[in-house]
Design brief:
With about 300 residues, this protein is an alpha/beta fold. The chain is about 40% helix and about 15% strand. The protein is globular, with a radius of gyration of 19 Å. The relative contact order is 0.16. It binds pyridoxal-5'-phosphate.
């Protein structure tokens, strides 16, 4: 059996902004679970690893960009739990390897590279069959761990934290938000902060993840409907883009509260929440839980701290 008992501490934030808004603000530190196997990427992997084990498959194969948090987490979790792991990386090989990929190799991951055009076929049965033929029977996990097993794992992120009114999380594919939404208790709502431009399109993707999950034979949630919304104005220019305001906010926040943020995801969500607080978006007495989804390894790729 795989032992998955990691704890994530919860930390209260006191600041002039929360004080003025009259809210209680807490951070769920998924970044502190384990030095490498942490964040939402771990929750998205959990049931994928269990399914692989159940099927007696000892090799994981997954996809990602050269700075991917998911590649990093899969390499680490694969090593920790005794799987062989293959990372299919988008684009050409560049040497020396960047910190993300050299960590992956240190963890025993085998890397292969697909040009961008071929990489785009990663979801097709043709390409997956090619890879199965090349590597033997492997357990394929989609990019980002974004399948229904991923949703299932993310249902465990906040399920024990019933005392909060509002759960906030950064969104890339929305898989994490979907899992959180399925685990909400009566009276709770979730707010997602897309880190991509024109994040409105995610609402439809999240809806179909929710529908597909409920139609699947995976364990049903206690409650099928819950309230959630997206705040689409905090992408700071688009995926993996940063601006001076975001940089300054993030550095100041870390200094004040001792919580490091990654620039691709968590900094944008924290910035968004602080901005909404200033605008009086939340009600006095609201108890907010901000999910720190990890991803700190990615800062090294952007070359700005961390
Ligand atoms: C991947 C990632 C997200 C986004 O998760 P989705 O399930 O794709 O929405 C958020 N934060 C961090 C740190 C991530 O690595």
């Amino acid at each position: 059996m795989l032992d998955f008992s990691f704890d994530s501490p919860i930390q209260q934030i006191h600041s002039e902004i929360t004080c003025r808004a009259g809210v209680d603000l807490y951070v769920l530190r998924l970044d502190c679970m384990h030095p490498w196997v942490n964040g939402n990427k771990w929750f998205k992997l959990k049931y994928n690893l269990l399914e692989a084990k159940q099927k007696n498959l000892t090799t994981l194969l997954t996809f990602g960009g050269a700075y991917s948090n998911h590649i990093f987490a899969t390499a680490a979790a694969g090593n920790l739990f005794g799987f062989h792991a293959i990372g299919v990386i988008r684009g050409e090989e560049r040497l020396p390897l960047n910190p993300t990929l050299s960590f992956a190799v240190q963890q025993g991951m085998q890397l292969i590279y697909l040009d961008r055009q071929t990489y785009r076929q990663r979801h097709t049965t043709e390409l997956q069959a090619d890879l199965q033929q090349r590597f033997g029977e492997v357990f394929i996990i989609p990019e980002g761990g974004s399948n229904l097993n991923g949703v299932r794992g993310c249902m465990e992120i906040v399920s024990n934290w019933t005392e909060f009114d509002i759960i906030c999380v950064a969104c890339g594919t929305g898989t994490t938000l979907a899992g959180i939404v399925l685990s909400l208790h009566p009276g709770q709502r979730a707010i997602g902060f897309p880190v991509l431009k024109k994040g409105e399109f995610l609402a439809e993707e999240i809806d179909s993840l929710l529908t597909n999950y409920l139609a699947s034979d995976l364990p049903a949630p206690d409650r099928a409907s819950a309230s959630w919304e997206l705040m689409c104005d905090y992408h700071a220019g688009g995926y993996a883009k940063v601006n001076d305001e975001l940089l300054m906010f993030s550095q100041q926040f870390t200094q004040e509260h001792g919580i490091p943020l990654d620039y691709v995801y968590t900094a944008k969500m924290f910035y968004g929440v602080m901005d909404l607080l200033k605008q009086g978006f939340f009600r006095k007495g609201d108890r907010l839980l901000l999910v720190h989804t990890g991803g700190l390894q990615g800062n090294r790729g952007l070359g700005i701290g961390g």
